[in-house]
Amino acid sequence: MARTVIKGGTVVTATETMEADVLIEGEKVVALAAPDAHDWTADEVIDATGKYVFPGGVDVHTHMELPFGGTYASDDFESGTRAAAWGGTTTIIDFAVQTIGESMVAGYEEWMAKAEGRCAIDYGFHMIVSDVNEATLKEMDVLMGEGVTSFKLFMAYPGVLYSDDGQIFMAMQKAAENGSTIMMHAENGIVIDVLREQAIARGETDPIYHSITRPPVTEGEATHRAIVYAELAGCPLYVVHMSAKEALEEIKAARDRGSNVFAETCPQYLYLGWDNLREPNFEGAKYVCSTPVRNWEEGHQEALWQGLATDDLQVISTDHCPFCFNDHPRLGTQKKLGLGDFTKIPNGLPGVEERFGLIYHGSVGEGRLSLNRFVEVVATAPAKMFGIFPKKGTIAVGSDADIVVLDPNATRTITVAEHHMDVDYTCYEGKEVQGRIDVVMARGKVLVSDGEYHGYAGYGQYLPRGTCQLLI
Ligand code: DUC
Ligand code: ZN
Ligand code: ZN
After folding, report:
1. Which of 218, 319, 334, 342 to mutate to test the pocket of ligand 1 (most atoms within 8 A of CB)?
2. How many separate domains does the chain show?
3. What is the pLDDT of residue 57?
4. Which tens digit of pLDDT belongs to each residue from 372-419?
5. Which domain holds residue 211?
6. Which ligand is nearest to the CA of 69?
7. How far is ligand 3, taken at its centre, from the CA of residue 319, in Å?
8. Which of 40, 58, 126, 285 is positioned for an S-S bond with 382, CB 3.0–4.6 A?
9. Which ligand is nearest to the CA of 318?
């Protein structure tokens, strides 16, 4: 079995920071030792002197090739997972979708077929439940047997992905029974639809109205309602893509009373806001996603960073769901479907390649979170939340050798010209970030090293998952 040593670096996990060498045999970490305390031989030595050695990133919220808003997310499993690897993410959990009127298992099989043989990194699935009924509830048990242990419901998008309160509650009762986790898109879609129609009738058609018609209280109210139902049903609840401080307050209160309530935020909510949505020439459409990026002046970003520091928020994911600003060569018009009517802009933005580096910069580089907390929110907590720890999310004997070597003294400028996502813009064009990813390894194989890519489609394996490992 091939042996690799990562030598001379500072190994950082969610709980430790240590000067240690890492010995990898085949796909696994087999030993950690002080540099002068071993005489390991190896086929390959990676010099990490002066650098951090982190666990590979775990992004638990991606939408490769998602059908949405009359088009498809522009990254497929091949391009999206390759881009993830470039950016230091070695595991994704994507969302398989149930088509309304069809079985959930059929949706799962469809997504398995899309991903199989195409991923550069390991991947698992959550299931989007579009149609809660007797048959679907039974299928939640079937999917648990396939390692799909989390189910996403939507309080938004009436007529498309929306479930009513009764349906949500029944799915939660099933989750309480079979041990799965309910993931919630928590926005009051019924009220939002009224506000959207009224805005369009007034001629308010620009991208900024996407956020104005989804005010923070619609996220706060839906989050509150989801928590009440989950507490009543007795299931774990994970609120996705949180952007409003009103919603965070609800999570905090629930956790303070001992409930199994968790939440994630995403880089766009920590870095972007109304100034971006107001960019001229329709460029604001690049930042249209739901929940929306919010008004900086209201203090949401500070509240979210604070929530990450205090563990009121557990995870940073991306909700990676890219659509081209100009025409995509294969998929045609995407963001510009909403020219003259913001309600027709496909919701979503790119991020899977940028998360690890952006969050390193914002947390460690700019001093908001400790090194260990950084690792926790980008790798360890997401792995525990969705039942893949300690295979994923840490560097320990027996863990998969999923490793990122980062040079903290180098800086890098984010630009579309250098990214690998299949989309024609980045939300962070020209942003200079502290830290450069030099090596990315997944299950013992070097995927990225000093600016060269050594991965291939099909290297990534399906990850059947266990249940939530963060339960109180
Ligand atoms: N939000 C997005 O921005 N895109 C896809 C689905 C969602 O809920
Ligand atoms: Zn969502
Ligand atoms: Zn999403």
Report:
1. 319
2. 1
3. 99
4. 999 999 999 999 999 999 999 999 999 999 999 999 999 999 999 999
5. 56-372
6. 1
7. 5
8. 58
9. 3
The answer to whether residue 139 sits within a structural domain is: yes
Tally the residues of the chain.
472
The predicted model scores a pTM of 0.98
* pLDDT one-digit tens code per residue, 87-99: 999 999 999 999 9
Residue 444 lies in a domain: no
CATH number, domain of 198, equals 3.20.20.140
Question: Within a domain: residue 107?
Answer: yes
pLDDT value of position 61: 99
pLDDT at 415: 98
Q: Is residue 443 part of a domain?
A: no
Beta bridge mates, 4 = 24, 44
pLDDT digits (tens, 9 = 90+) for 341-374: 999 999 999 999 999 999 999 999 999 999 999 9
Buried b / exposed e along 218-257 (16+ C-beta atoms within 10 A): bbbbbbbbbbebbbebebbbbbbbbbbbbbbbbbbebbee
Please give the pLDDT value at position 262.
99
Nearest CA to ligand 1 atom 1: 290
Give the Å distances, CA to CA, from 456 to 98, 321, 466. 29, 22, 27
Strand partners, 315: 264
